[in-house]
UniProtKB/TrEMBL annotation:
Cofactor requirement: pyridoxal 5'-phosphate
Record flagged with keyword Transferase: yes
Gene: bioA
Descriptive protein name: Adenosylmethionine-8-amino-7-oxononanoate aminotransferase
Gene Ontology, cellular component aspect: cytoplasm
NCBIfam families in UniProt: bioA (TIGR00508), PRK05964.1 (NF004624)
Pfam (any one): Aminotran_3
Length: 440
């Protein structure tokens, strides 16, 4: 295809030069301190760069493109809906794609979660979840319960309420510490998915919750996997403890499943590892298979009824592009494809299990390497934690030389590959990660 042919060197330089001077990229300075690689197409698990290289995308475009790129089923969902309508406001109107997606989400989430609020992005979904908790307690005559409690090491998004519940020391938002709402933090759960629960930690957690329960509306956490806060895994027992403590003190439990949802951790929901059900659940990222931005916040009947009977008469939020028909159509198609409901026989559990096995085997040689603190795998997540912060540009050069695109941060070289990745493709990813670790 013409768009997959290498571009002229002069055009690549013009594009990258303009990008460097005028286009602001995530968590970076302006002008850019490093080159951003121009992508002109993508297919399967590969990105097509302007210079003709086709690296494997080991990031699933930040954990969203679980089906890979240019998937015919998802392409058809978008183009079919585009022929009907690209967008319509959701205030006072509804449409079949939104209703179908809501049906799927209610069916796929634990039974008490029956109400669906569509949002623009994962960050907004968490904002909505926090609003739900605050409005619920206010409606119940408890306006003093206006704070959130969480564990350190977490990441929940980049908007203001979200930043306030991200790790205040090691997170990305310490620059805003003086203006963010002051939330209540407990120590991070001890690491290790298979580790025995630490009784002293659980006692301290219980004391922390009891101390602040009178002013806390909800406990918020990422279930079992703390994503962008450090790619840490923790034992399901700690998540069960949070559920029990929320119940004991009359608090809501918000689970941020944006990174963990839809099978990434080896269970369909991160909460499934602990067999707990939240009062509010936030989903996003893989929801649309990486095609369009969309997220959702689900809650129980009790929460929805409490909010609706309160002074506001409803939830005080309403994005312009809420329930966008294009996004809702491709999201429904993505969920049907992922769960095999479209009749094509996909088995996400087998795919993720195969990736997990390949990641464990491929990263085994990094254990004990100089400069490597820990190597860990859970589901379709593989992490090399280094002793010192990595030189992102240098590490990316190593992995790109091996034909793999990764995006390390801080002291983490990690991968979350698309579920359709073959054993050979996962082996390419782990080979690149191992080479990067050896280069430290």
């Amino acid at each position: 295809m013409a768009e997959r042919a290498a571009w002229a060197a002069e055009e690549i330089e013009r594009l990258t030069a303009y990008d460097r001077e005028h286009v602001w990229h995530p968590y970076g300075p302006m002008p850019a301190a490093q080159e951003n690689h121009p992508v002109v197409a993508a297919h399967g698990v590969r990105l097509v760069l302007a210079d003709g290289r086709e690296p494997i995308d080991g990031m699933s475009s930040w954990w969203a493109a679980v089906h890979g790129y240019d998937h015919p089923v998802l392409n058809a969902a978008v183009t079919d809906q585009l022929g009907r309508m690209a967008h319509v406001m959701f205030g006072g109107l509804t449409h079949p794609p939104a209703v179908r997606l809501a049906e799927l989400l209610v069916d796929l989430t634990p039974e008490p979660l029956t109400k669906v609020f569509f949002a623009d992005s994962g960050s907004v979904a968490v904002e909505v979840g926090i609003k739900m908790a605050l409005q619920y307690h206010r409606a119940q005559g408890r306006p003093e319960r206006h704070r959130l409690l969480t564990v350190r090491g977490g990441y929940h998004g980049d908007t203001f309420a979200d930043m306030s519940v991200c790790d205040p020391v090691n997170g990305m938002h310490h620059l805003f510490a003086g203006v963010l709402p002051q939330q209540v933090f407990a120590p991070p759960p001890p690491g290790g998915y298979d580790a025995e629960p630490d009784g002293a930690y659980l006692d301290g957690l219980a004391s922390r919750v009891a101390e602040h329960a009178h002013e806390v509306a909800a406990i918020i956490a990422e279930p079992v996997v703390q994503g962008a806060g450090g790619m840490r895994f923790y034992a399901p027992a700690y998540l069960r403890a949070l559920r029990d403590l929320a119940d004991e003190h009359g608090l809501l439990l918000i689970l941020d499943e944006i990174a963990t949802g839809f099978g990434r951790s080896g269970a369909f929901w991160g909460a499934d590892h602990a067999q707990v059900v939240p009062d509010i659940m936030c989903v996003g990222k893989a929801l649309t298979g990486g095609y369009l931005t969309m997220a959702a916040t689900l809650c129980t009947d009790e929460v929805a009824r409490g909010i609706s009977e309160g002074e506001g008469g409803g939830l005080m939020h309403g994005p312009t592009f809420m329930a966008n028909p294009l996004a809702a159509s491709v999201a429904a198609a993505s969920l049907e494809l992922l769960t095999g409901r479209d009749g094509r026989g996909r088995d996400w559990r087998s795919e993720v299990s195969a990736i997990e096995s390949a990641l464990r085997a491929g990263l085994a040689d990094t254990i004990g390497l100089p400069g490597v603190r820990d190597t860990r795998v859970l589901g379709a997540i593989g992490v090399i934690e280094t002793v010192e912060p990595v030189d992102v540009t240098a590490v990316q050069k190593v992995t790109m030389d091996h034909g793999v695109w990764l995006r390390p941060f801080r002291n983490l070289i990690y991968t979350m590959p698309p579920y359709i990745s073959t054993p050979d493709e996962v082996a390419r990813i782990t080979t690149a990660m191992t080479a990067a670790a050896r280069s430290l």
